Amino acid sequence: MKAVILVGGLGTRLRPLTCNTPKPLIPLVNQPFIEWMLVRLRDQGIDEVILAVQYLADRFRAVLGDGSRLGMRLHIIEEPEPRGTAGAVKNVEHLLDGPTFVFNGDVMTDLDLQAMLAYHREHQSKVTISLTPVEDPTQFGLVEMDSNQRVKRFLEKPRVEDITTNLINAGTYIIEPEIFRYVPPNQFYMFERGLFPVVLQTGDAMYGFASRAYWTDIGKPQTYLDVHHDILIGKVKYGFRGQEIANRVWVEGDADLHPSAQIVGPVVIGAGTVVERGARIIGPTVLGANCHIGPDANLEGMVLWADNHISEGVTLRNSVLGRGNTIGPKSFISDGAIIGDDCNFGPENRLERGIRIWPGTVLGEKAISF
């Protein structure tokens, strides 16, 4: 079984975290998100995957190779220019020879793919769209179905009075290759506003597959932090790497944890990380590889990428730090702050309320209090 994963976006909503790292390669619990996604597909019977990449294809090749390390065949195909969601798949049409899964590369889900495939075959569908219910349908594109679950209308960001369903397009499709005859070659063309409305007009069988599987878009800073918390507290299936050294505390390789440090799970600690005396690490928290957590530091609900140096007495809460940052003594970072890579903060800075700091930023003592 084959799949196409669309990884051509620039990740602008997730900046500054994606300034140096393509969005699909950002870490998810210390593992590149795209690698987690590929392993999940492999475990559900998909043994050949095509990554439709728009830029930085060599970065994907360096991390993933040909897929053999993950037990699958992997093709990394670079578009000559942005071609949209349907145009990207049209660009790799020559590799498709049967019903094919198509995934948006920024969707985190534990959808049962074999159940969706069985549904697709049972209904003799040409296009099957995964659907998920949401609390506020006005922010999404709704998918209306008839009593047999055949798609009959798409409604983009409706007014409250126009809402007839709470089911939205969840970004996973099964498509028969013949449907791509409706996609013009070498053009920018979208599934949502191009191909799917055309399929409605042609009368080809298009069905919705509704489920309550876990689903979220990791492409925004708050949802990126939220999905880590959801994984750690068990809302989504995830196989933690490393050894569980205490109740819901996993260490990936060797780490130096001072006996006086307080670590309350769920917490994942990367290889080579040092936690000094009196530090408190309260879950749900992820520490990347080779981080240094100084004496009496307090971390809660955090995601730290690799190589961060956290000085004495620092408090970090519910925020994300990219790679290679140095946070000066007694600084305070909280409430959804997002720090890019290679920043250097002096003592007693205070950053909160969703502030974003770009890579390479240098702050002196008490330079920011926000």
Describe the structure.
With 370 residues, this protein is of the alpha/beta class. The chain has helices spanning 33-43, 57-64, 84-90, 113-122, 191-202, 221-233; strands at 2-7, 27-28, 31-32, 48-53, 73-78, 100-104, 107-109, 127-133, 141-145, 151-156, 167-175, 206-210, 215-217, 243-246, 249-251, 256-257, 262-264, 267-269, 274-275, 280-282, 285-287, 292-293, 298-300, 303-304, 309-310, 315-317, 320-321, 326-327, 332-333, 338-339, 344-345, 350-351, 356-357, 362-363. The strands form seven sheets. The protein has an eight-stranded mixed sheet. α3 (84-90) crosses α5. It is elongated and about 65 Å long.
Total number of beta strands: 34
DSSP strand content: 25-35%
Helix content: 10-25%
Task: Give the mean pLDDT.
Answer: 92
Across the major sheet, the strand order is 14-15-18-21-24-27-30-33
Largest sheet: 8 strands, mixed
What is the subunit organization of this protein? single chain
CATH class of the largest domain: Alpha Beta
CATH superfamily of the largest domain: Spore Coat Polysaccharide Biosynthesis Protein SpsA, Chain A
Low-confidence sequence ranges: none
**How many helical stretches?**
6
In CATH, the architecture of the largest domain is Alpha-Beta Complex
What would the principal axes of the Cα set say about the shape?
Answer: elongated
Count of the separate structural domains: 2
The termini sit apart by: 51 Å
